[in-house]
Model the fold of this input.
Amino acid sequence: MSAVWALSRAAARRRRLQTTVIGIVTFVSAITIVVALELFSASSAPFEHAFAQQQGAELVAAFDKAKVTDAQLVATGARPGVTASAGPFPQVTVDISQPSGAGPSRLPSVPPGPLTVVGRPSPGGRLDRVDLWSGHWPTGAGQVVVNRAPGGPSPVGSVIELSDGQSLAVVGAAYSVSQSAGAWVTPAEADALGAKESEMLYRFADATTSDQLRSDLTSVTGGLAPGALAGSRSYLTLERQYSTSVAQAYVPFLFAFGILALVVAVMMVANVVSGTVVAGLRHIGIMKAVGYTPGQVGAVYLLMILIPGAVATLVGTLAGTLVSKPLLSTATQGLGLPAPSVSPWLDVVVLAGLPVLVALAALASARRAKRLPAARAITAGAAPSAGHGLRAQRALASTALPRAVSLGLGLPFARPARTALTVATLALGVTAVTFAAGLTSSVIRYGQLQQRTSSVQVTAAVRHNGRSLLVVSAASDQRTAELLASLPGTRTLTAELQTVGELVGPNVRIDLDFLRGDTSSLGYPIVNGHWINGPGQAVVGPGFLKDHDLAVGDRVTLTMGGAPATVTIVGETWSYDPSGLMADWHTASVLDPGRGATRYEIGLRPGTNLASYIARANRADPSVMVQANGGLNGDEQLIPDFSTLFTVLLAIVAALGVLNTVLLTIRERRRDLGMLKSIGMTPRQVTVMMVTSATALGLIGSLIGVPAGITVHRVVVPAMVHATNAVLPSSLLDVWTAGLIAALALSGVVIAAVGAFVPARNAGRLRVAAVLHNE
Amino acid sequence: MSTEQPPVQVVVSLDTVVKEYGATTALAGVSLEIAAGESVAVMGPSGCGKSTLLNMIAGLDRPTSGSVIVQGEDLGHLNETGLCLFRRRRVGMIFQFFNLLDDLPALDNAAIAAQLTGVSATQARRRALELFDELGIADRRDTYPALLSGGERQRVAVARALMNRPSLMLADEPTGALDSHSAEQVMDLLIDLNQIGQTLVVVTHDEHLATRCASRVVRLSDGKMVGEQSVEQLL
Done:
């Protein structure tokens, strides 16, 4: 066993506390870095990643079976420019029936209307490897797998009823990023349903622009009978739709937290490792006096730190990978995409990178020790040189502060570099806490604005057997509306019919929300134009206008399968579903006369007890589910949840940084502490002194971190809102109250005090005789 | 018949050595020669430069000017690694506060010096145990430094210094932190070493130690040599 290995192994074993701190810091840092990198990876071009993971189809084309044979279609896969193809798969468009108003909906996942069903033997293949996340692939007649992003309840077990009387049992749920179908059945079942088209999937050598894809399509269809191509869709359309979706709001959020987590973890490791080396100067001096060469000294310290560092990196990387799996799944559900697999290369990066980081931090500090003559290293190790903090100590000594406090305040000046690193770690921790607090407030306010909780306190949905009804008769609607209006406490009542229709022209399916009653009381903030005040008027969100290249004042025609109706867009609200349109009730009666409202929004009179009102309303009509309006939905709740997780991780890392700093200070100053105790300093005063030194750093960290967190919030929140195509209301940024800022400023002090308390208390318990004996 | 004296072998040669720490001059042109087998005590008041002089001879620090030659090796020409290798093979050093490695048990503290020269751990421990036996601390072999008495710690330090059979033994206030009984034991050890031919340089405040262990006393004051006496003259 070499002298280097013998000493480094002995040091790692004997210095249990130091080894443990290095291990824990590296462990938490490894987890943080793995999670941050995985989220980075997931949030960086998530559509592209999901598309690549599924080997998505760049072009989905439907061909008329009457005009082209399967052999001809297979041959298109060999056309110039085509790099891969799949198909042909029989395709049929079925019509999902509207459920009767009297009965319950049996369509929990697929709304009424046309549905593209494709016959595929399996979810895999060369292209469009769909993610079957629930149930199994159809194996026989009457079975169907619906296309839906993972998350939420599984539709398996429900039944899809077709307008021709047939029904299909939902046996699975799968997700195709290429959106190659609305549902899948076996090829035989597709034929049995009357498939008149064949679907082909393609990837090309050049498909990065619309022009290239048009050229590719021309190449594929060249030579086929005229009219053989029934329709096609490029992945660029999907990519564009995704890039303007609400889900994009997650990307800047994940990015900001990922950066914070990475920087804090890296600084923390550097702080702990360099502190260990600096605190070991005397030890280094002795080693040199005995005959260790500078290289051997460096090797001893490197090994001493790498032994726990490497083990903690390994365990932390594994733990980070395990933690990342559910987080990625949750995050990408928020993104509306299937969960990406955890990237093994990221684990390799962390496994190799973190020990290198540890080594670099150790070597950077060891260089100083290497340069220092042995004689000076031995004496330097006893305590920091007096010059550093002497002036500050003198100034503090002349204040009226208790001596334990003034001594504690002077300690950070003795090691300016270590103090700077610790303050930086704390400042980043406070930045994270501040950003998280601001973001959570903004998200809650976003929810309040979205759900208009100041205008609407209660919502009521007509249900049957626990499920929302899609169709309600006018008579039933009238009874419910009268009942709700008659309840004591009802101030305003608005009825809504939420359904699906089509925008005539572009022929795209849109969500329709027809409003009846005192609609101005709903409290939608209008950023352009005005609210609905007459028949034939509609209000939409910024996303709708952008997607359809419309402006306030434009007219659009709607249809729900029957007579069309034209409405004028009279207003733009700050944020609303990009595929949604709100219109007056008159338009609903033109499009589908006799339909009743399915939902109600109620404003309460001031002083009305919310819980009593809801209980009374639910008792009055059990078929109506009345509940309080408010709270965050699943996607919105995800952001505060992630914020909390990262904040807790970063706060732990920052507190560990303080713990390490206090430990090193105590080790360096054992003789001073023993001397102070020998002249009468009580254990409590020693604890106060050490905690004071840490809380001073915490306060400085807060003074830096709080403004930094507010700045990050002011950058990220607009980016998130912008990503959703919404207009930023100033109230989303104005979340900073004096009380909140004061509480956040305290967070740095609290983190520092928590990190310092245990070692400080132990310092108070040092036995004077033992300390002075050992010196 | 003429009786020819054998040539005196100079082990340590310092030529006008100056050492400055910023504005403070620790050594102001010290010149000194020490012959093989000689035992020299360096004495003087606190802050006169005794320990600095010893550090120069041990290669633990470098002079600002002047030369330090030990066993023909000009230490000024050695880099940091060269100085470490020099100390490892040529010098055994004993400090006032022992400077043992807290993480290693007593025996390993001594053995590590031999291991650094490439000796296997087993051989190094065997040699260390022999020395521990001679020094009367074999029963403390597995004890960590923090649990040893001052005298025991200094004997471990002596064992460590002797591990590689150095040609030069340097001791910086070796009894300064010891009780009188332990101090006597350490003095006896140093005398025994010198009697078997070990060249010895001892820095001390203690006239008793100097007269017992040294054949020559060098006096320093304000970084300068102010006197040199044989022990006979001193007595």
Summary: Residues 294-334 of chain A form the longest helix (41 residues). The longest strand of chain A covers residues 82-96.
